[in-house]
Amino acid sequence: MTPTRTPADGCLHNVEVPQPSLENNTADAERLAEALEKVLDGGPVHLGHAVVRRLPSMLRAADHRLRCAVIRYGGHWQVCGIRPADDAAPMTGLAVDLGTTRVVLRLVDLAGGETLAETAFDNPQIEIGPDILTRIHHAEKPGGLEQLQECVITGIGNALEALLTDSGRSPQDVFLTAVAGNTAMTHLFLGLEPRWIIREPYIPAVNRPELLTPRDVGIPMNDMGRIFVFPNIGSYFGGDLIAGILFSGMDTREQPAILVDVGTNAEVVLGNRDWLMACAGAAGPALESGVAGIGMMAAPGVIERVTIHPPDRRFELRTIGGLPPVGICGSGVIDLAAHLFISGMIDIRGRFVPEKCGDRLVKDENGIAQLVLVPAEKSGTGRDLTIGQPDLDSLMRSKAAMYTILETITDSVGLSMEELDKFFVAGTFGSLIDPVSAIRIGMLPDLPLERYEAIGNSSLGGATQILTDCSATGRVEAIRQRITYMELNVNQDFMNRFSAAKFLPHTHPERFPSVKVWG
Amino acid sequence: MTPTRTPADGCLHNVEVPQPSLENNTADAERLAEALEKVLDGGPVHLGHAVVRRLPSMLRAADHRLRCAVIRYGGHWQVCGIRPADDAAPMTGLAVDLGTTRVVLRLVDLAGGETLAETAFDNPQIEIGPDILTRIHHAEKPGGLEQLQECVITGIGNALEALLTDSGRSPQDVFLTAVAGNTAMTHLFLGLEPRWIIREPYIPAVNRPELLTPRDVGIPMNDMGRIFVFPNIGSYFGGDLIAGILFSGMDTREQPAILVDVGTNAEVVLGNRDWLMACAGAAGPALESGVAGIGMMAAPGVIERVTIHPPDRRFELRTIGGLPPVGICGSGVIDLAAHLFISGMIDIRGRFVPEKCGDRLVKDENGIAQLVLVPAEKSGTGRDLTIGQPDLDSLMRSKAAMYTILETITDSVGLSMEELDKFFVAGTFGSLIDPVSAIRIGMLPDLPLERYEAIGNSSLGGATQILTDCSATGRVEAIRQRITYMELNVNQDFMNRFSAAKFLPHTHPERFPSVKVWG
Fold first, then answer.
1. E strand or H helix at A28, and its extent?
2. Partner-chain contact B210 A47, CB within 8 Å
3. A185-216 confidence digits (pLDDT tens)
4. What is the CATH T-level fold of the domain B3-84, as seen in this structure?
5. What is the CATH number of domain B92-235?
6. Of B347, B358, B378, which is closest to residue B503 (Cα–Cα)?
7. pLDDT tier at B288 (50, 70, 90 boundaries)?
8. Residue from A25, A213, A237 to probe the interface with B (highest B Cβ count within 10 Å)
9. Contact B56 A205 (CB under 8 A)
């Protein structure tokens, strides 16, 4: 963990508001604002109507000593909650990773920054449309947008209330919510028309949403509170990625680092505290889950680790939860390919080598070569688990695309990959892949392993940081303004690189000195 | 009318938002904000969630040409409504004079600034409490504040909807509301605890309310809209007076001017474009309506003008609406006293002179001298309309207090009254009084008559100006910051002045060279 990812300067501030007198008889709101302005750096303090409504009696009941939750936004400080300073009830915040598929909530104590509870649920919009495109088309029907917004807001509200009930708290204890999602998901959360995001020239309704009140969207929290929604840079670079950059801390480092988030697209950010360059490209579904046949998202029984042991090419498989294997996830496929390659069972083009594969290599009813990973009698499905030549071909394209994207973006700023001081890999995928295997197949560059860091759910991590670090919103805005988005032009240069990367580990094996095949 | 009271730079701006392209693919909200920032001077443009929600489809339906209502507030511009530029439907604003007794609404076309409709109604809070003190005490009971807020908001809502229906418009056509009231009324309108306003050291909940959304208070208007509430300076200097200063334009004049607003209190502001000094004092009820017995607020049948003709001291009375007289209002009493004085019927101490009053002077059942203004057979009540010596004594105290306040405030800044370049008299009272009479009794200084200007409902006028002049909110803030509030200490100096002013026109008649008595 880099230091910037630990709570820095919290969102809570205790202030003693000067007692009024005939000499200092300015109003309560202005006295509180002035007291806070002395504690906080620069910029006026805005209280909001709901705070002012509660202020006079709370101020006097609390003997003029208040605990205030604040968030910095757009050159001012917004108060998003007040409590008597000696009130023992915790003031909490909610971080939301608003995924297309999965929504994750984390309840955080605004005082110390620690996580109080966490929960996740399938995005209820899936029932309306499994993917973003379907949902955007649905939003164009009468009432469709309202329906999509309502179902995700209701989902978040229900999950939040369950979280709160479980921990003996109420919505009145939640003062700040931070939401990170991609551009389309953010639009649906906000009830903004997503129609133009997917049509040339791909225009969002908004890049930088204003701070919202709970009533603006309908989240059950204290009505003094505020909702911070991560900005996006355009239709393709969402708030989830900005949250990821924030969480990685790469925007504060002197040395260049790279952040890779692999989903349906591979999203890549390169930079340091002075500049940031981003791009995204279709790396193919193979890296996440989409290997034909037995490919699956990470789940119990799914193969996540593959080792092939010399000298007899014995397969060792590790499944999630240690259950009988039912499929294989992206990290498992990468492991598998890496071991198939170093054991000589596939060649540098990713083709099965029959004499090395032996009995494991069979042909299916269509005459396609399949490697049996798990015979039917040992699998959790009662059928052979196999991986076919087309699956490997797909992986070869995906890993080549990934490497090409990395090479293109580093090259565009005049860096070599060796100069990357840190390589952050985000997401479940990042937590699961073994960098050694990813390097062996030439998907990731051959850097010293200590430079690789899996940072997990960086979107949720970035949202959490908004709740625990007063400087985070300023960094978000700086990141947004500093990012140069590079369109990946699939030109001759790109295609040449891609072709060169379609070998194991690469046409130029000297770039991967650590990769050694058997014997 | 001074030039500053005519609509200057309206709140509506037509903008052509650049069409998006692959080269300029920033979001709709940011393209609109940028286009507005080019039209408007300085400061960022904030759109608000309700505007962003409507923006994408409206922008495209309107071929990227929009009409936007904006208001400048606290260093930024707030958009409070958008319409397609060629939409013929008017965008309107609502000015509210939030009086303790009477609430006046004016519907204004934001395009040209002209008044579309006006209405007034008794403040429904009167049923809960006739005066501010009673209402504040009621607000301290459980549910009392909510009840007071709800009844005035409902009253405004109903009156607004009637206004709109009458003119074929809907709440959706109202984008900006400006509300001017005294500190207590403003608190009740906003649902803010007024409890501490009336208790030493007299602290309002807020001096400068933030811009509100319609939902914050419940006014039926377009949800993109905003509500501007005039700030107050403390418990005793309310937004209604700041609105009055704005409307008078005295804050933009090079030469010093004075503004007097007479109600239960006399409120006085003195200053120019560089400085403003304010004070308030109890001038006594006599000036408004409170002459015992026949004193009334201006209404049909009420005597508003009195002339006594030489040589036979014939009384000529003018009533509102020309109806048989039923009472006399403050301006009528001032006229009466002035004419009684110059005709010799009262002496310089305001005492009836029996030999000049003749038959008109009678004694009531308590032995108190009464002057018969209208005998029973000519009155609208079937009884004699009389004014007694105690009524005149009360008027003498009120007029002396008024003059003393004027003398004290001008003296405090080293000016003489003759240096007052302009003398604005606000309110119904200001519209009704005859400056000649007010000078004759020594209530107002003996300035050339052209310096006096009755500006009517200056509170409503100031609220209207917010709707029609983009620079008005900045002036309001400048006024608020510039005003020095002078506590009127009833010290020996004040008492000496007061005693000297308790003569007609004054102990020093040389200060009133224009005042000549008969013969």
1. helix A28-39
2. yes
3. 999 999 999 999 999 999 999 999 999 999 99
4. Ubiquitin-like (UB roll) (3.10.20)
5. 3.30.420.480
6. B347
7. low
8. A25
9. yes
